[in-house]
């Protein structure tokens, strides 16, 4: 927290003169472009939720899009609000997936595949941006990086299919864990874990649709940046905005412990937009407007989801019977209907 406060203080000291000049740009921002930016950001969030649904469906789990979008918004709010928020966001989404019925191997697969596909999609955007800027060598480098990522995925999937190879190291780790936790049933869970991992065989269609969803996620956020540049009345060429966006996302990922990439992302975006032809005041105004949407507006939506879920849980807890002598009606008692007799008292 001290490091974050120090960084924000330094950033505000440097940005303050430009922010005063950017106020005039924000005062004359065009509402139509701002609404387009909001729509693009919502499409980006929905695409990431779609990617998670696709990953969960490989294990036979069907999740409603509304539930997936709410989990993504809430996770994004935690990631943007807390230092080290990306780790908190992963923990929150893991817990939500558990409530949907996902097993730990499926959850691990979902986190891994969404991260890999998102990274591949960002590399592809970087290659496209460099090519549009006239540097075709970057396209070759991007192709090599994508091919390397695909090779790692294929190797990992092939290794998972050979459970006899993974059996010894996994069992050794679980024996150590068993001694630490003093539990008895770790061998069976190891066998089940390996069998479930081996049963996951995503078809080619999944990889195509997943990469498409990851690209839509990035492109939606990119269109949001492009729209806010137009909203402040000074947008450079599309390839310059693309390069600025990739530079900003790369800078943010280099320091994942900072909430919402505060500092590195803003500096990279403003400086690259200015280098692409935007005045410094306009570039600062575009960054402030983009930050109003992400993490501002999306953060408000995410925290609203978290509060609503908390209120609904507390409301259900208040409705539960408190007396140990109450005999529940077996027809209407939800616990009896679903076989969870631990909720029945009396």
Defining key terms:
disordered C terminus; mainly alpha; 346 residues
Write up what this structure looks like:
It is a single chain. The chain is mainly α. About 80% of the residues lie in helices and about 0% in strands. The longest helix is centred in the last third of the chain and has 40 residues, at about 280-320. The protein is globular. It starts with a helix and ends in a 9-residue tail after the last helix. The model is unreliable at about 320-345 (pLDDT under 50).
| Main beta sheet strand tally, sense and closure | none
- Average pLDDT for all residues: 76
The ordered string of helix (H) and strand (E) elements is: HHHHHHHHHHHHH
Q: What does the overall shape look like?
A: globular
> Number of DSSP helices?
13
SS elements, strand count: 0
- Poorly predicted tracts of residues: 322-346
Q: Please give the share of residues in helix.
A: over 70%
Distance between the termini: 49 Å
Give Rg in angstroms. Answer: 24 Å
Structural class: mainly alpha
Strand content: under 5%
Break the fold down into its secondary structure elements and pairings.
Blueprint: H1 2-27, H2 31-57, H3 65-81, H4 85-100, H5 104-132, H6 137-161, H7 163-181, H8 186-199, H9 204-231, H10 238-254, H11 264-275, H12 280-319, H13 334-337
Helix pairs in contact: 1-12, 2-3, 2-5, 2-9, 2-12, 3-4, 3-12, 5-6, 5-9, 5-10, 7-8, 9-12, 10-11, 11-12
